[in-house]
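Title: [Solved] Cytochrome ubiquinol oxidase subunit I 3D structure

Original question kept below for reference.
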Amino acid sequence: MEALDIARWQFGIVTVYHFLMVPLTIGLGTLVAILQTRWHKTGNEAYLRMTKFWGKLFLINFIMGVATGIVQEFQFGMAWSEYSRFVGDVFGAPLAMEALLAFFVESTFLGLWIFGWKKLPPRIHLACLWIAVAGSIVSAYFILVANSWMQHPVGVEMLNGRPVMVDAWAVFTNNTALVAFFHTITGALAVAGGFLLGISWYQLWRRRKDGIDTVDATGRVIVGESATIPGRDKKDHSVWIKSLRFGAVVAMIAFAGSAVSGDLSGKLMFEQQPMKMAAAEAACHDGTSFSILSLGDVGSRDCSEVVAVMEVPGLLSFLAHNDFTTEIKGVNTLVPEYQAKYGKYLPDDPMYGDRAGQEINYVPVMPVTYWGFRMMIGFGGLAAAAAAVALWATRKGTVPKSKALMRLALIGILAPFGANAAGWIFTEMGRQPFVVAPNPSMSGIDQVFMFTASAVSPGVSAGEVIFSLVALTTVYAVLLVVEVVLLTKYIRGGVVSAMPELDQTKKTDDGGAGPGGEADDDVLAFAY
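Solution (posted by the thread starter after getting help):
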């Protein structure tokens, strides 16, 4: 394998791994802020417990997200220096604003929220969390502005072979960025909703298993208490049933929002990156039908071996143009058009190394785009369906006693994560062979594009990239174990793990409250 191939694997692994933390941080932070707002307005202790429990898990994930995100910046210089030189005049503004404005605001006010319990006035303390959450959302927007410019370059002029920003407003209001932001936020809320649902189901099941909660002849819950298990009182039941139903509603609303934003995103892709959408459909020939299932060699250059087994007539045209009759160009039509516009062979330039003069394959890896597109939709729909089932199953105040259903609910947490990951893999892989895709809709700007083959650092060898790939993957694997262990520990501990003051069994030798007891500073107990 060449350094280019290994560098792409490295960037893909690191980016997808990091993006497992990002949607949970954004979505869960928003839900925790809503829960604390409810506690502030109602004074209901159940909302305070919900805020602290889910807030604890939010903090663990936030810290891991920061640790894994730092490497993203280093990769640009390590393995993608030519790319960094090409996009630097454009990326400087959004990335600087993300780091200096959004992330600093997010981190500062999150710190005030962590250590501000009982130290700050309640309204100020609540405002700190909302500001931190807003910072994470704004941070995501700036990152998406940068990524969307790679998908759809606007607001620049070419000077000395490099794009230079001449219209900042066009860059920051790029229609691709606006739609991607909407889609990303709804996807993050879907992740958070599924997270609340699965964990709350597990906690309610534990209450049933331990005999704390029972049901009457009609199946309605009879809420109980345990004198031997700390925190397992009636308010504990309220925490989990409220969290479960809140998460289910959020998951369903988020899926609806994702469907709307996904439709808008798809229409833009048909216009801006027609080859990506043709590959996503394995659409070898012009037509109007949406492929439910295609079989054959979807990786073949001319699509000659791809056969559509199940398709919906007219649906592809509707997704692209809101009608059922307009034909959409297929791969075999688009390839000659791309070759005429951007060349059939890589330029004979030293920056391409041994790849100079090679024929350009404008068709992205079809198995990835085709199945990635369907996995994104399928996992998202599965998560929404599970949320609807959960609302119905808990209408009488608790969950069934089935262990299999409990395990299914926990596994279901992964579905929205899978939808998010598949969506990003499809978006980035479908752009190939470009690292900066050309903008075909803007007159005179077609020359603003960059082949991935020219983006890799020329002085980096395959061995050096293999070393960093193995090192980073190993570190990330360790961090994944750490996060899973920490999350599992605090999830199993229940609310008491975030509010140790609820455990009245811990006493000091002099009869006072012990570590985590009411006599202690529960602020530090919550933080650490």
